[in-house]
Amino acid sequence: MEGKQLGGRYEILHPLGEGGMAVVYKAKDHLLNRHVAIKVMNQKLHEGEPAIQRFIREAQTAGKFSHPNIVNVFDIGNENDLYYMVMELIEGPTLGKLIEERGPLPAKEAISIMMQICDGLAHAHKHEIIHRDIKPHNIMCTANGTYKITDFGISRLLSAATQYTKTGTVMGSVHYFSPEQACGQELNYSSDLYSLGIVLYELVTGDVPFDADQSVAIALKHLQEPVPDPRDKNQALPAALCDIIYKALEKKPEDRYQSAEELKQALQKALFAPAHALETPEENQCPTQTETAVTVETARSKPRKFFRFALLGTIPLVLILGFVFFNVSGEKAPKKQQTAQTDLPADTQPGDKQLQSTKPMTPSTEQAHHEDKNADKQEKDDNQLVPEPEREKTPSEEPSKEEPGSEEPDNGNPPPAQEPSPVTYIVIVDQFSDQANADNCVQSLKSKGIEASYYETSGDAGTVYVVSAGEFNDEQAANARAEDVRNAGYPNAKVSKKE
User: What Gene3D superfamilies is this protein classified in (predicted)?
Assistant: First the structure.
């Protein structure tokens, strides 16, 4: 096929990939001077007219879409019984290749990717289109980090019987079947959301939840077995994301999310939850049945623990108060008795004075006598409120010498320090010389759930369009938003103080 020209304008360059239904080539559109991708239908399927009609219908259906998270279809043609479809060229990896290379992705990155896919699915569902084959290999990643859904309607080319027996594409698809798809029931939009839940499970664990040697065994697991706990493969999985996975993978369609918008809202709530909700899984994991029982028992034991600690705290307090009381009483009683013997008041009887004077005083008694007199004198002075003599002032009490004539506050405390003015932090995504590029950047960020806008500024090179992703009073919040922008495919994002 290399070098072959289709439709008089598309030159086949080289193959990009091959599946059971078609081969995709890189081609040059000489009329518009751009590279495109051309999907050429497998000629073995030409024997069945319904297969050709479905291929044409797929191109017509995808051609109705105009969304940043869906691969655009530009043209369709038939040349010498060679049916082909001309599409937007995306040379980035598939999501499946990304999982193979990196393994489990961080929670924030996985949520950001899923929100983009939800946007694409919501657009398709509004056009009453069910994809039926959502899987990582049908999701492409562009150079700027935009994820796009491709291969709409491919699964419609396969009958229910061949879905379980054909190899290659079938084995890849059966891992993402919804229970109703596995048993051949009528599908609705929630079937795509179930498949998207499988993709999310694989994004955060690196593996699909149901696997077996045979396709039929995998389909039965979708129908009968509960979803394995994703924390068994990724202990850092946050509780919020764990809950989303379980709801998306409910067996009954009515128990799942009812629309792609609803699933996106749940993902967005988890993404913009407090940082600890996604970064400290030990405190936010989904509780198991045993953990719940322990929590209830702990709650019941709290009143008993309170009274136990109150009683243990009261006993030492009573002992301390008793010790202080008896020691104070014991110190005052000897003092009064000693004072009565050694320092009698002036109106004491003469006989008592003679008795006092005839009793010899030992050095220790004399020392105690003077100490008691001094103590009584100090107590008397305190009771008479005699003003204290002027004493030398400490440096903290002296008036400030920095500004003569300045008055100190009445309480002697230094004046309160002035609070610094609040700082505003702005997240700068990138700068563009072309307004259209700035607008594309803003639209791309908004499609990923990140609010953004741009403004004009003048410089040496002329007018520059600066794209920002919000202003914050908290530097930590600004850094978190910048990290989200970088994860969304804009590595130049940074935080600057607003002048």
Answer: Phosphorylase Kinase, domain 1 (3.30.200.20), Sporulation related repeat (3.30.70.1070), Transferase(Phosphotransferase) domain 1 (1.10.510.10)
Beta-carbon contacts of 259 under 8 Å, excluding residues fewer than 6 positions away, are 122, 125, 189, 193
Q: Which domains, and CATH codes, for the chain?
A: 1-89 (3.30.200.20), 91-290 (1.10.510.10), 425-497 (3.30.70.1070)
39 is an annotated ligand-binding site residue = yes
From residue 43, give the alpha-carbon distance in Å to each of 15, 48, 188: 16, 10, 31
C-alpha span between 303 and 357 (Å, rounded): 69
448 in Cβ contact with 413 (< 8 Å)? no
Q: Where are the alpha helices (DSSP H) in 183-288?
A: 189-205, 215-224, 239-248, 260-271, 275-279, 281-284
pLDDT tens by residue, 125-181: 998 888 888 999 999 999 889 999 988 765 443 333 334 334 333 334 799 989 998
Give me the percent of the chain exceeding a pLDDT of 70.
Answer: 64
Q: Please tell me whether residue 76 adopts helix, strand or coil conformation.
A: strand
Cβ partners under 8 Å of residue 161, min gap 6: none
Query: Angle formed by the axes of helices 107-126 and 239-248, to 10°?
Result: 30
Cβ–Cβ under 8 Å, residues 121 and 197: no
E runs forming strands in 365-432: 425-432
Q: How far is CA 386 from CA 154, 377, 378, 380, 382, in A?
A: 104, 12, 10, 9, 7
Q: Which residues are catalytic?
A: 133
- Using CA atoms, how far apart are residues 51 and 414, in angstroms rounded to an integer? 88
**pLDDT tens for each residue of 472-489:** 888 888 898 888 888 888
Tell me the C-alpha distance between 494 and 481, whole Å. Answer: 9
Distance CA 387, CA 432 (A): 79
494 in helix, strand or coil?
strand
The amino acid occupying position 50 is: P
Token pair, residue 420, equals: 């610094």
Q: What is the 3-state secondary structure (H, E, C) of 135-182?
A: CHHHEEECCCCCEEECCCCHHHHCCCCHHHCCCCHHHHHHCCCCHHHH
Answer whether 19's CB lies under 8 Å from 168's CB: yes
The set of residues, in sequence order, having a beta carbon less than 8 Å from that of 408 and lying 6+ positions away, is 399, 400
Return the structure tokens found at 190: 């929630």
